[in-house]
Amino acid sequence: MVPEPARTRALGLIPEHILAHVPGFTRAGTAWALRLPGGTVNASYRVDTSAGRFVVRIHDPVAATLGADHEREARLHAAAAAAGLAPALIHIDDAYRFMVMEHIAGPTWSAADFARPERLGQLAAALHVLHSVPAPAVAPFDIEASIGRLYERLRAALPAEAGQLDALMDRAREALRASQTAHRAKTVVHNDLHHTNLMGTDRLFLLDWEYGGVTDPLLDLACVLAYYPQVGAHVDALLESSQLAEVATPEMLGAATWLCVFVSYLWYRTRRQAGPVSAADLATEQGLLTRLG
To answer: Is 208 left (phi over 0), alpha (psi -120 to 50) or beta?
Structure first.
């Protein structure tokens, strides 16, 4: 049996004005919390009170410089929760600085799950359901505009890297044309299908909607391939199971995957501009640059 992670008093980790929105929390009572794994920028905590277990997600302001839109995140999370694909939201801060949601008991996926055809089939089926969810009224997500903003910011801040950035941007324009991402019907997408954002065995939940949007559904499959290149052996099955094979070819998916790798590289490079990063993050950034060719 896996031992229970160490907990501490919730007031020692989370501000009281946030805990006030967690069911069962009282200053006089006992509430316990522990930091949950995952999350490169924002922080999530499990909070245990007399009313049960909940998750508090606290947003870091730096996320906005990396393309996050927390109002959009909350609306898309709520739409996915209504479809049974995400934890139910209990409270959304008026300024979108934090959210409180139900706690889902179940194992988080591992990178090894992306080598299992049955797991990939489960994910593709869940994505088909997600892509059929009525889209809420949210600020649009435009991958071309998002790439352009990050590129312009980095080019202005890093003149010594301008030549490399320009060459990559030229390739991005070609990948945008080849992927035909602007021509498919827009749907709700998660857009960050890292294994730490997937939970459950018989039933799959999608966590962390920070980079969700209403855009080309092919980007969800491209995101998976960008994170896990080994999934390339299952491209045809993924397109079929997600019911995207009628509107996208493996070649289009390959171009969209290159775009997602490029977005990830720009994200890590921009984040490094904001302050020191870990050696692991720096290695990830360099690995992404190598994959871009």
So the answer is: left
DSSP strands (E only) in the chain: 8-9, 32-35, 43-49, 52-58, 89-92, 98-102, 187-189, 198-199, 205-206, 213-215
pTM of the prediction? Answer: 0.89
Among candidate residues 102, 129, 144, the one where a domain is terminated: 102
Residue 1 lies in a domain: no
| Cα-based distances in Å from 33 to 16, 25, 97, 238, 266 | 13, 11, 19, 38, 34
Q: Cα torsion for 159, 163, 168, 170, to the nearest 10°? A: 110
Tokens of 18: 């946030």
Q: What is the pLDDT of residues 31-88, one digit of tens each?
A: 999 998 866 678 999 999 999 999 999 998 766 666 678 999 999 999 999 999 999 9
Answer yes or no: do 95 and 120 share one domain.
no
d(CA 60, CA 110): 25
- Number of domains present in the structure of the chain: 2
Closest CA to 87 of 66, 108, 71: 108
My answer on whether 156 and 272 are in the same domain is yes
